[in-house]
Amino acid sequence: MATGLLCLWLAACSAPVKKTEVDTAQALPSYSMESVQTLLLQARAALSPEKEQLLIQSAEQLQHLGDADWARNLLGSIDTSRLAPEDLWHYTTLYSNLLLAQEANFLAQEVLMNPKLTEQWELMPKDTYISLRSQRAALLATLGETELAVQEYIALDHAGLAPEQRQQNQDALWQTLMDQPRTHLQQLARNSGNLELQGWYQLAALSKNNQHQLESQLRSVDDWLMRWPGHPAASRLPRDLQLLQQLIAEKPQHVALLLPVSGKLGRAGRAIRDGFFAAHYQSLQAGSPAGRISLYDTNLGDIQTLYQQAVADGAQLIIGPLDKDKVAELALLPVLPVPTLALNRIEQPAGLLPTQNLMQFGLAAEDEARQAARRAWLEGHRLAMVIAVDASWADRSAVAFISEWQALGGTVVEYAKFTGKADYSKIVQRGLLIDHSNQRAANVRNILGRAMEFEPRRRQDVDMIFITALPNQARQLKPTLKFHQASNIPVFATSHVYAGEENPKLDSDLNGIRFSTLPWIFNEQSEEKRAIERFSHDPSFNRLYAMGVDAYHLYPRLRQLREIPNATVFGATGNLQLTPEGHIVREQMWAYIRRGLAQPLPMVISNEAELSDS
Fold first, then answer.
1. Sheet strands side by side (includes 254-259)
2. What is the pLDDT of residues 290-308, one digit of tens each?
3. Which of 227, 230, 469 is CA-nearest to residue 369?
4. In DSSP terms, which residues pair with 336 in a beta bridge?
5. Which residues are within 8 A (CB) of 366 and not within 5 positions of it... i.e. 6 or more apart?
6. Model-level pTM?
7. Is 575 within 8 Å of 550 (Cβ atoms)?
């Protein structure tokens, strides 16, 4: 009898979702499937609001027992309009925790943003209020809903948090603001009717505006403090701004560049050099004190000898080398005498600790592939098809994507490789199982002994495609996907898919592709970029120009990156952070192709499958 009723109840619930494991060792002794069955039987016979209360209790027990999916289905069947305030808070807490644990972010957003909650904030116990608003703030920030997230953080700032909690809340608020473009922050500051909000927006905007000029940034912060003496941030500036005076005092006055400016890597080395000096001259024009820069050609000597020569010449910080083998040679040393920012990244030799004073900054395609996996996952995709050109960099990118995707919990349903030699259609047909569909049609024709109308069908177990390809390859691959009925599947790519210059006639074949890219590409206000375009511009070296610019802006802030968790330099190659292992990691911006032109992707993350091409 009980089993039959349970089956009827389950039939009324939504379809099961992917199983989520829960540690059953934490289950309370009084919880059991028998007690869940009893509660569901009672709910079956009860009227509202008792019925909904019993369902919530059942879901809570199921969650403790390890059946999060059944709990989710039960909670999803509840009509929240029937819940009393206390029951709504309990329901929201339970359901949102479950959804966030399963990374069902968009459904969690719907649950947490229930308008009824807004009407009941003043009725809630303090702990419930803080818990729910904290969840809302973090989720909204993750999904790019900046204004809403900031409002939640500010509400929490006035909720009587303990000192440590308040500090953490303000740090999260600051990080959310600093993830936004400067122009957007300035617009928010102009449009805000709330003085406290306006103060935060102005502080963030001036910080982003002057981030690459320490002295200018310090002057701007001092001016802000004069104008906003009673603002919450005035009593405790964000930690990165607190360090400004020390960073200026400790800024190296003699920097050595160890780059190949001749030989096979000469063009790459010269591009980095040009970016570095473009940033240096821009800094001088902005009023920063002049320092000494020495350049050593690593193509002309042994790296350790050149390194020691630079130190003997008085270098307080070294930038380079670029060549991976030379970086590996320095990485074998237990310690370097001065801070060193290598312009490539290597795998740490097994058994060796990271070299003290060595930091590594590279533009690895693998980082972009991992970022693509995280972005696609955040948009709600779970079933990936990977298509890679047959090249070493593309193989590394594909493997990095697959590793990150599977670590997140995603499934790779197909991994296809192409050579680019007229095999696009063949690879796509095979990957989408179009060839299987064609074979089934042929078998039916043979059985019937006559011709028949037939439209091939692709596989349906793919909800996103990741490609590693160069522009000319992607321009053939994307139309092939469209031809084979995959036009509605979102396509993600690394920055290699876009040449870096406008070419709408050719790039219309890339319409809809999402790709991570350098902020440098879209920053038309950059004085460094304008200088490069005047004197030594070659679009194929955009990445290296930007790397040179970032190397210049990174070196005064290395201490800041080391000491402050999540401290970020917003650079020409992306948002830069320093890992405990001494690696500079990048988070690039997102763009997509629309009408043959690259455009920044909206900041707000959506789970919509398609982007308009019109």
1. 292-297, 254-259, 317-319, 335-342, 356-361, 583-587, 575-578, 569-570
2. 789 999 999 999 999 999 9
3. 469
4. none
5. 396, 397, 399, 400
6. 0.85
7. no
